[in-house]
Amino acid sequence: MDRRKVLKGAGLAAAAATVASPAVAQTNPEIRWRMSSAYPKSLDTLYGAGEMIAKRVAAATDNKFQIQVFAAGEIVGALQTLDATQNGTIECSYTLSSFFIGKDPTFMFETSVPWGMNVRQHNAWMHYGGGLDLVREFMKDYNVYPIPAGQTGAQMGGWFRKEIKSIEDLKGLKMRIAGMGGQIMQKLGVVPQVLAAGDIYPALERGTLDAVEFSGPHDDEKLGFVKVAQYYYYPGFWEGGAQPSLYVNMGKWNELPAHYKAVLEAACAEANAMCVAKYDAQNADAIRRLVGQGVQLRPFPRDVMEQSYKEAFKLYGELAASNAKFKKVFDSWSAFREKELTWFRIAELPFDFFVNQQQGQR
Amino acid sequence: MDRRKVLKGAGLAAAAATVASPAVAQTNPEIRWRMSSAYPKSLDTLYGAGEMIAKRVAAATDNKFQIQVFAAGEIVGALQTLDATQNGTIECSYTLSSFFIGKDPTFMFETSVPWGMNVRQHNAWMHYGGGLDLVREFMKDYNVYPIPAGQTGAQMGGWFRKEIKSIEDLKGLKMRIAGMGGQIMQKLGVVPQVLAAGDIYPALERGTLDAVEFSGPHDDEKLGFVKVAQYYYYPGFWEGGAQPSLYVNMGKWNELPAHYKAVLEAACAEANAMCVAKYDAQNADAIRRLVGQGVQLRPFPRDVMEQSYKEAFKLYGELAASNAKFKKVFDSWSAFREKELTWFRIAELPFDFFVNQQQGQR
């Protein structure tokens, strides 16, 4: 290993660069950005994906392009990341488009669509089915250049204080669930609640809250819900795979030298892939521990699955009828999903189904 | 858009750089590598993944680090990529570890294990389960630093001239199938054949070959097998997801400046993710066209699936008993797989199963 030789060479280069600094500064300008993450440091995988991008960008540019990562609330809160990026308060943010469906439901497509595509299908649509182009066209109105930069995989359906045996048991249930998943669950009788993360546990304990949807086992475990709500449902059909993105202020993006753009895009693509790989490893460990702590794993009852599926696609139809931007993306998404589902029924899922059965038998 | 301003700035920098060239040359040295792909240009997705890496590396280093990609046979053939990288004939190659299981079956783990992990599970093991560290330790003996750099997803089980209704129909069947999949199919009565790609079609047409395994719909379609062998089986259980890698000569890797290493690793991670996204889009289109051309899609009969599964794990047990290197990687792989399968049975697969059923009903 020639580490010392490399370091020595770098030292000489640095000394020479001092003399010739104007030229070096022009070709590889020193750039400092701030990234506001929509996540607290405690959500180590999602917060960490932002850090991974910053580290890779610095390493790949010999520390010339540095991005400092701030946790949610340090500069702006999670729900202000779009506005702050749009108006240039910050150069970029690591955030989740589905936070902004209140501005326009079209924001949903970049993150995940309830009962939509899985991770592989979503990536195929984004990069080779025209999805990302449509998302970027839509986001131009917000002065933001989005780059896919993370992935959770399919999430869990949440923690319930009582067992849910049929759709009847959802009627009047007070559940902390946000976004479009909340809208769909509301059609099934659930009363969606808005609570900050820190308020969920005491509300569940007191029984003023009946259920909570948060993330997957790795993230959920830290919040200790198992002690106050033992039934842990799956799948989290509203997020068959949630994809956070790096939102970059359009002006800042355009000013970036072409090779820094290339570095940033590759670093985000890497974080996108590594984030879900990390979750897949971490969730597998966490679910084992949770089962050891007495969690009762339950699939959602069949009628909950079927009714939520119907309500989801009914909602998309309504949104497409009233919102031309939504319709444009939905039409592409919908056609692509149909063909992906057909293909996955052939090679991918029969492989998974069979292995799953064989493993279940042992 | 400040494109002109950026270009103007770059022009000034280039002029200044001419004066100060020694300093610039040290910090961002001009490096030229050759990458020998194990694939012909006609396999556009796999060959293209190597090109994607080269383009991204050039773009991210302002064209200072350039990698020229050569198709299989232009410098060395697919099966010589390891030797040529090991002895430094070429700096790097884009290749598939499973080509080299004749040297040591331990090479299998980096590509795919028959009836092993799917793409997500494999990535989780490689990057967050210690898999890549083990693979790199093993590859040190070959003077190669491997970087995961592509992915096919689950492949098809191949083209058969006659319908396979049970394991009995495999007895004596002459099938073009390589590697460990061939070893397992041999246990089921198949007689594996070695044929170059160009010889397959005429052999199938004449009936001197009964079946052929190649890749997935997008790649297979080009070879026109549907005209001479209409039964197209799934899943290709020997490759639930094949991962090509960039093999880098260890000396060349060590000489690379740290920021070029960072660029190359990010570019490979990006290609790894984009390759499977591209296949997932392309295969979905190709399978539709193939069905339109009269292909008969068939799942492998249950007894073929079950017996091949048994034979596969029996083989791994035998290899682990006689090969300490194999055992070391297998033990890690096997334990990780168990926990991944448990986790995927909870959130991910029930989501896929249900969506699959709903789509099938329409």
TrEMBL record, chains A, B:
Keywords: Metal-binding, Signal. PROSITE patterns: TAT. InterPro entries: DctP_fam, SBP_TakP-like, TAT_signal, TAT_signal_bac_arc, TRAP_DctP_sf. One of its GO terms (cellular component) is tripartite ATP-independent periplasmic transporter complex. GO terms for biological process: transmembrane transport. It comes from the Bacteria. Pfam families: DctP. Residues 1-25 form the signal peptide. GO terms for molecular function: metal ion binding. Substrate binds at Q155, R176, E213, E239. Na(+) binds at F214. PANTHER family: EXTRACYTOPLASMIC SOLUTE RECEPTOR PROTEIN (PTHR33376:SF5), PTHR33376. This is ABC transporter substrate-binding protein.
